[in-house]
Specification:
nine-stranded mixed β-sheet; disordered N terminus; globular; 16 helices; 2 domains; about 450 residues; alpha/beta; two-stranded antiparallel ribbon
């Protein structure tokens, strides 16, 4: 953990304010306003492309209800700049249960952020509440029978899309922005699509340049969940099928106070259950939020993706292809980060070697300089990387499978690490892990109708 100068700053803001929000039907834009004390002001916008321009009274009421909670969720990007001890909501009142939800959303969603900045938010984050909320009941608005699949441009969402299409489901793709991998994945899918664009306040971007301001990871998947709840009203769909696998449930490390830090917390089953319950009770009764891939391991998903050859030239999992600053985005893969290493390793046992190397642009398993990164993935050093990567057991199984394949067994990474895995864990343990990796879990929220699709 790093020390931050704010710990000793005397003029740190005392209050984070949720000032106001509004939704412009004509431009399909949500405006969200925040402030610290009376000194710093921010406006964030979330715009929905080609959304319905005329809302029924029932739809308008549902939008207003969701906007209240969307405002609170998106505020996490701003709150983290100073993490003051007082939160002031000027747009309404939360009940005890709602306040507890957002307490957890901020504490656990900012788990990695707080660990990196040497903070403990357990006694800092406290949303004010009363016995009864100003937004006490979810809308019973009828929604169209179709499934929105969030597209991230990687293997997971593509597997979800093709799984649902293969069983005749009505699928609409939904995405934040249009980086090239997302755009091209949607084109390959052939599905209709929805686009929304979240624009961070320029005032926050400028503030983040200061050395005395906190910065770091937020639960972006959780923020997008609220955005998609609003989209469900504007475009009409009754299901959101995420592509989150079961490895997202596993944290990166446990702090000294027994708090688990999980980079993927808002992709975890714990968040999925919490958000789905919150949504049905307080936002939209008829919207179901779940992950289609929750029972599966990353390797099982990779095995399924290997059969979707049309996506090979367009998919990308490297986060550098999705940077907010378009000038810093890569077209495809950087080939030298935790995400690139893991996805290459997960796919190598199942995709044709030449196709994988062509898609990523290099043979990562032949790169001696990346040995340390693979050691972290395999639990041979340090903790699980702060990235959306699989469990160490999955990584060990992938290396074990590659050690048995003539086309991969002599690559530097495989040759270097497989003997060490055998020595540390033993052949029997590796075999047991392999069986576990390819056995689906029963822990999920998949609708009854979809259960057999996997």
């Amino acid at each position: 953990m790093q020390k931050n100068p704010l710990k000793t700053q005397k003029n740190k803001p005392e209050t984070f304010r949720f000032v106001s929000y509004a939704f412009d039907v004509e431009t399909s834009t949500a405006s969200l306003n925040y402030a610290f004390d009376e000194e710093y002001y921010f406006t964030e916008t979330v715009q929905f492309r080609n959304a319905e321009k005329v809302l029924t009274p029932e739809q308008a009421a549902a939008v207003e209800n969701i906007m209240f909670f969307l405002h609170l969720a998106c505020g996490i990007s701003y709150y983290k700049a100073f993490v003051p001890g007082r939160i002031q909501i000027e747009t309404g009142v939360l009940n005890r249960e709602q306040a507890a939800f957002f307490d957890e959303f901020y504490k656990k969603g900012l788990g990695e952020f707080s660990w990196r900045n040497g903070l403990n938010l357990n006694n800092v984050v406290k949303f004010p509440s009363q016995k009864q909320s100003t937004h006490e009941k979810a809308s019973d608005l009828c929604l169209n029978d179709r499934t929105a699949v969030p597209v991230g441009g990687g293997k997971d969402s593509n597997v979800v899309i093709e799984t649902l299409k293969a069983h005749g489901e009505k699928v609409v793709c939904i995405a934040q922005g249009r980086p090239r991998p997302i755009r091209e994945s949607i084109e390959v899918s052939g599905c209709p699509d929805i686009e929304f664009t979240r624009t961070i306040s320029p005032a926050l971007i400028a503030l983040n340049e200061r050395p005395d301001v906190y910065n770091g990871h937020i639960p972006i998947t959780g923020v997008y969940a609220f955005c998609m709840a609003l989209a469900a009203v504007l475009y009409g769909f009754d299901k959101i099928a995420m592509g989150n696998e079961r490895s997202a449930n596993v944290g990166n490390l446990v702090r000294d106070d027994s708090f688990e830090v999980n980079h993927q917390w808002s992709k975890s089953f714990a968040f999925e259950k919490s958000f789905n319950s919150f949504c049905k009770k307080y936002m939209l009764q008829n919207l179901h939020y779940f992950s289609m891939l929750r029972p599966l391991s990353e390797l099982d998903i990779a095995r399924r993706f290997a059969g979707l050859k049309a996506y090979f030239p367009v998919f990308t999992s490297c986060n550098k292809a999705f940077k907010i600053d378009k000038n810093k985005r890569l077209e495809r893969w950087c080939g030298d980060c935790d995400k690139c290493r893991f996805v290459f390793l997960a796919l190598a046992p199942f995709m044709p070697k030449e196709d994988l190397i062509e898609a990523v642009g290099r043979n990562i398993l032949a790169d001696e300089k990346q040995l340390g990164g693979f050691e972290e993935l395999l639990g041979l050093s340090s903790h699980k990387p702060f990235e959306c990567v699989g469990e160490l057991e999955e990584c060990a199984v992938a290396v074990s499978l590659l050690a048995q394949k003539p086309e991969w067994k002599d690559e530097f990474i495989v040759k270097s690490l497989y003997p060490r895995l055998l020595e540390k864990y033993g052949a029997q343990t590796l075999q047991r892990w392999q069986e576990m990796v390819f056995t689906p879990s029963g822990e999920h929220l998949i609708p009854e109708k979809f259960k057999d699709y996997l």
